[in-house]
Amino acid sequence: MTIMHPKICGLFLTLAILKISYVKTQWNTKDFMKREHSLIKPYYGSGIDIPFWQFMGSTMITPNYIRLTADLQSKRGAIWNTIPLNARNWDLQVQFKVHGKGKNLFGDGFVVWYAKEVLQDGPVFGNKDFFQGLAIILDTYSNHNGPHNHQHPYISAMINNGSLHYDHDRDGTHTQLAGCEAKFRNLDYDTHISIKYEKDVLTVSTDIVNKAAWKQCLRVEGVILPTGYHIGLSATTGDLSDNHDIISVRLFELELPNEPISNEDRSKVLPSAKFFEPERERVEDVKSSGWSGVKLFFIMLLGGISLVAAVVVGIMFYQKREERSKKRFY
Ligand SMILES: *[C@@H]1O[C@H](CO)[C@@H](O)[C@H](O)[C@H]1NC(C)=O
Ligand SMILES: [Ca+2]
């Protein structure tokens, strides 16, 4: 039998403590993920219910994914988080898989919601029209026959205080805040979307190219969302179809350590956004700072002076020639 030297024993003990504290730190970072707003495998709790979630329509729960719609016509499914989200700043990350047998014809798409009311069956990808809240729409089918300024699949953001109608015939283009094209369908690898709401800035990013990194799709400032709304996901198929599968939903509460604690009550405000995207051609803002304005002024001034100088020199030259020709003739 060997008796360990006390020093070596101490070293092992230190290592063991280090290991424990390391693991603990890992746990602490995971604590930011709010279990009551997340949906991760295994989905079922002890019974047949999914804790904190309710589902409706064609939604099917399997051990590895939640299928909102199968690749069949005229399906409508949704899953809603029953606990109101009271965080002010958050990041909602969804792993999804949209796939089907259609090569060129498929639809309709799915929506990630942050909405006032849950389980409201309706025409907007399986939720009610005139909703209140935020919709991140992953539209795979182009309903619009006229000229589009984008391709499908297309991701867009819509904010509604209950007064706006989502117009499928125009793929919601006249009510969207911003959007981006995203080829997220029928991919062999994992596809993710992140919806981040931080200090009234909405940022939507995707990870759909198997790079394990976020790529920004859209960013909108001046977005006001109330607290206490609900996370939801819904999907529809029509004449065209797809499997709309949700693999996981992770809600991270963002703590902003350097922010003074705001006492502003956001529980009663209506959803709103300062900036709406123009209906058709998007005209980008001309980036003009004070400096470039001054520069432009000087360039114009210099141009003006040169022009005047050129004219003066020209006149003088002309007069000289006139004088000379006069001398020649008289
Ligand atoms: C609701 O939204 C619409 C469209 O953005 C806006 O015109 C209207 O003023 C809003 N209503 C309220 C009560 O804020
Ligand atoms: Ca569409």
Q: How is this structure best summarized?
A:
This protein has 330 residues and is α+β, with helices and mostly antiparallel strands.
Helix-strand pattern, N to C? Answer: HEEEEEEEEEEEEEEEEH
Counted up, domains total 1
Known CATH architecture: Sandwich
Mean pLDDT: 85
Beginning-to-end CA distance, first to last residue = 133 Å
Keywords: Disulfide bond, Glycoprotein, Golgi apparatus, Lectin, Membrane, Metal-binding, Signal, Transmembrane, Transmembrane helix
Subcellular location: Endomembrane system; Golgi apparatus membrane
GO cellular component, one term: endoplasmic reticulum-Golgi intermediate compartment
Main location: membrane
Task: Provide a descriptive summary of the structure in words.
This protein is α+β, with helices and mostly antiparallel strands. The protein has one domain: Sandwich (Jelly Rolls), CATH 2.60.120. The chain has 2 helices and 16 strands. Strands 1-4-14-6-7-8-9 form a 7-stranded antiparallel sheet, with no helix packed on it. It has a 7-stranded antiparallel sheet with strand order 2-3-15-5-10-11-12, with no helix packed on it. Strands 13-16 form a two-stranded antiparallel sheet. A hairpin with a 2-residue loop joins strand 10 and strand 11 (201-207). The longest helix has 40 residues, at 290-329. The radius of gyration is 30 Å and the shape is elongated. The chain starts with 5 loop residues before the first helix and ends with a helix. Residues 13-30 and 280-293 have low confidence and may be disordered. Bound molecules: 2-acetamido-2-deoxy-beta-D-glucopyranose and calcium ion. The site of 2-acetamido-2-deoxy-beta-D-glucopyranose has 4 residues, from loops.
